[in-house]
């Protein structure tokens, strides 16, 4: 019986994780070109909101293993569309913009990548500042 339970648990876990779509949706380089903000969207399906995970990585490097600087769940722009705006405000400040955020489970105020110390801040969505928009991709 123990073997059957273990098998069923593994199958349930596999079914749940197979439904989650995790995609890189944007790379926004800093003014020096040495650091890039990598934004991933994770969508668990019809009954969940989109989770945006933001990493800082060295230019040309993968986000895996890089520092996570923010996790924004249920973020919207313009009040109704899932997404966040991302822009660099000067050489060492990354601004993440959203109209609403349901949950900010993690937001680092300072992080480091490629030897550059980066300040991270959350701000209201402002289309006039021309941020790079990161909308979720659906199959």
Helix content range? 10-25%
Tell me the domain tally: 1
Overall 3D shape: globular
Rg, alpha carbons: 17 Å
Count of separate DSSP helical elements? 1
Order of helices and strands: HEEEEEEEEEEEE
Class by SSE composition: mainly beta
Strand content: over 45%
Lateral arrangement of strands in the main beta sheet: 1-2-3-4-9
What does this structure look like?
The chain is mainly β and about 140 residues long. It has one domain (about 20-135). It is about 15% helix and about 50% strand. The chain contains one helix and twelve strands. The protein has one helix at about 1-20, and strands spanning about 20-30, 35-45, 50-60, 65-75, 75, 80, 85-90, 95-100, 105, 110-115, 115-125, 130-135. The chain has a five-stranded antiparallel β-sheet with strand order 1-2-3-4-9, with no helix packed on it. Strand 3 (about 50-60) and strand 4 (about 65-75) form a beta hairpin. The chain is globular. It starts with a helix and ends in a 5-residue tail after the last strand. The relative contact order is 0.20. Mean pLDDT is about 80; it is low at about 5-20.
């Amino acid at each position: 019986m123990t073997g059957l339970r273990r098998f069923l648990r593994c199958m349930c876990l596999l079914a749940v994780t197979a439904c989650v779509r995790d995609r890189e949706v944007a790379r926004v380089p800093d003014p020096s070109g040495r650091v890039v903000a990598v934004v991933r969207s994770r969508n668990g399906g019809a009954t969940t909101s989109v989770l945006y995970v933001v990493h800082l990585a060295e230019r040309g490097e993968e986000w895996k293993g890089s520092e996570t600087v923010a996790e924004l769940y249920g973020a919207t722009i313009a009040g109704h569309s899932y997404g966040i705006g991302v822009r660099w405000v000067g050489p060492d400040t990354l601004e993440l913009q959203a109209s609403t955020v349901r949950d900010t489970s993690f937001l680092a105020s300072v992080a480091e990548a490629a030897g550059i110390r980066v300040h991270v801040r959350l701000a209201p969505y402002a289309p006039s500042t021309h941020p790079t928009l990161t909308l979720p991709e659906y199959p």
